[in-house]
Amino acid sequence: MQCAKCGADLQPGATVCPSCETRVVPTRKSVAAPRKRASAPAAPAASPAVPAVPAASAQRPTSAGRPAWQVPALLAVVAVVVAVSGWVVFSVFNTGANTPEGAALRVMQAYAVYDARGMLNNMTHASLTATDQATFEKQAADTKVANKGVDLLKDIAVTKVTVDPKNPNVATVQLTESILDAKTGKYALRNETLSLVKQDGKWLVKLF
Q1: Hey, is 138 helix, strand or coil?
Q2: Could you report the per-residue pLDDT of 197-206, keeping only the tens digit for each?
Q3: Is the pLDDT of residue 135 over 80?
Q4: For 64, left (φ over 0), alpha (ψ -120 to 50), or beta?
Q5: 192 bridge partner residues
Q6: How wide is the angle at C-alpha 49 spanned by C-alphas 48 and 54, nearest 5°?
């Protein structure tokens, strides 16, 4: 923009010429400032991608992070362990215990299934020779064949245990059991009394 009188350059918006001090009459052209074309609004910043939620798997994890199929499997294992543990506890406190009752039950249970070696292992048999023991085992095997493998005894139960008050290494055990009648194939109730002795820390049924 220039002064209309002297032609001096004027600053935008000036009302007096700095050279000749002539009043500047603004024109429409000088007043109107060029309008800038509005720029397109900036695109909004892209939001972070949200990962898709995976579909439920067939093996849905449990709260512990295990697949669902492992839960019943673990329960089955626990059930087996409990059952085996119960059997072990029963054996230890009954037939497996080193007590007069335990020794008596082991002998009678071996007798029930014609287990001559099992009987001898829980009886005092030092007086038997090797030939005697072999004969005893053969007789048991022959009897098992004759009875067609049917158990000789069943329903074995201890009814009373008495330890000699004068000698704690001597005891008697009273039992009841049902014994097989080979002729009829039926069982008859029978009472049994066994004498026991403790030798080298182990309770044994006296053979004689």
Answers
A1: helix
A2: 999 999 999 9
A3: yes
A4: alpha
A5: 175
A6: 145
- DSSP per position, 5-21: TT--B--TT-SB-TTT-
Kind plus residue range of the DSSP H or E element containing 197 = strand 187-199
Res. 87: pLDDT tops 70: no
pTM listed for this prediction: 0.54
pLDDT tens by residue, 8-51: 777 777 777 777 877 766 654 444 444 545 444 554 444 444 44
For 171-196, letters b (16+ CB in 10 Å) and e give: bbbebebbbbeeeeeebeeeebebbb
CATH number of 99-206: 3.10.450.50
In degrees and rounded to multiples of 5, residue 120 shows phi and psi of: -65, -35
CB 178 within 8 A of CB 155: yes
**What does the alpha-carbon distance between residue 22 and residue 15 come to, in Å, rounded to a whole number?**
9
119 burial via Cβ count (<10 Å: 0-12, 13-18, 19+) = buried
pLDDT reported for residue 96: 75
Which residue type does 126 have?
A: A
170 SS3 class: strand
How big is the CA angle at 142 (ends 138 and 148), to the nearest 5 degrees?
145
Question: 178 - beta bridge partners?
Answer: 154, 189
